[in-house]
Amino acid sequence: NEGALWGGRFADGPAAAMAALSKSTHFDWALAPYDVAASKAHARVLNRAGLLTDDDLVAMQAGLDRLASDVADGTFGPAPSDEDVHGALERGLIERVGTELGGRLRAGRSRNDQVATLFRMWLRDGMRRVGLGLLDVAEALVAQAEANPGVVMPGKTHLQAAQPVLLGHTLLAHAQPLLRDVARIIDADRRVAVSPYGSGALAGSSLGLDPAAIAADLGFDSAADNSIDATSSRDFAAEAAFVFAMAAVDLSRLGEDVILWSTPEFGYVTLADAWSTGSSIMPQKKNPDVAELARGKAGRLIGNLTGLLATLKAQPLAYNRDLQEDKEPVFDSVAQLELLLPAITGLVATLTFHPGRMAELAPAGFTLATDIAEWLVRQGVPFRVAHEVAGESVRVAEQRGVGLADLDDETLASINPELTPQVREVLTVTGSIESRNALGGTASSQVERQIVVAWATIDEL
Ligand code: ARG
Description:
The structure is a single chain. With 461 residues, this protein is mostly helical. It is 61% helix and 5% strand. A hairpin with a 2-residue loop joins strand 1 and strand 2. It is elongated and about 100 Å long. Bound molecules: arginine. Arginine binds next to helix 7.
């Protein structure tokens, strides 16, 4: 069998069910372009180590280039007899340059160091794509914050009316975690960018190949320090799977807010037709499916992370075939985010907010009660007392079915003599918001500052 990388010591070929279980070409074919690139680099180090003549190197590179273009245009693909991408590509090389030359390439490397290296190369590109997609969502959020200056909305804790805030402040609160996710990707890449190539099966290479040279050739920051660790550790993949899951969780929180905001009960926002769906039975429906899929995908990505961790748990050193299960969850997390991120970006960029509705609801539920308490503190009243007095004001207003600002002078004075009519200065939504102007607060000056910082962060990342 041409695609088999082993067999010398076996009298019989693998049983069909054994081969079916073992096979990975249906997913590891994604590594094919990286495998060919790494093979070209490997041929160069073999040449430098005196194991491949200059003429052979030229012929080998030409064969690998032909193979790469045949892989790219689909002319060459995995055959049913191929166990994995590495075997298939060796078969492809031998078909192109002959057994004598094609059979030389595998010297000094094992599929164990190969697959660990190629997975890292794939992941670095995947993380980059995800990072750029996350920046697009963050950009859409910051742009919406910028496009809606001074728009107020109810701020909630426990999903209950809490304090009024600016819409921009809320949108930036969704952008911040996404920017941290991008920073996490950049940081994780430092650990992914270490090359296992040259580690062989587990013990390193005896053929005088230079792992540092091949690492540099393949764009890695460095070569691994320990060949056993390099072939058997996948914490780099688990870390990436965590960042992907975290990003999906952050997107699910954004999605959940959009879902709530778009209900008639909230009425804060209308979704663009292009980013919502209808019902097959209820003609009036306009559903926030993009946001719901963000919630749904988050569950899936959490599963990918926990599944991978379970695969890694308690594996003895060094390589075990369990590790073949490492790629699908990570590939899937990237694929799902690549579907989700442009859709979320489109959803956010086309949201139409309803400032009137949000302004009307902003003071509802006595959300200015904290402003009464803090105003009393500024008059010298201890906060404990101020909290009681503000609470009493809420009770009276609630009893009478009016807002806090509607309580008359006499009522205020009867609640507490410190409650002079001047308190009404802070009993407006805008007054409340603009008073919270310390660093990180919801006042417009702070939101404008955040927007400047967010654009700078986006440019920098
Ligand atoms: N396909 C395997 C993987 O994805 C690599 C092959 C290693 N096989 C082996 N018998 N050492 O991990």
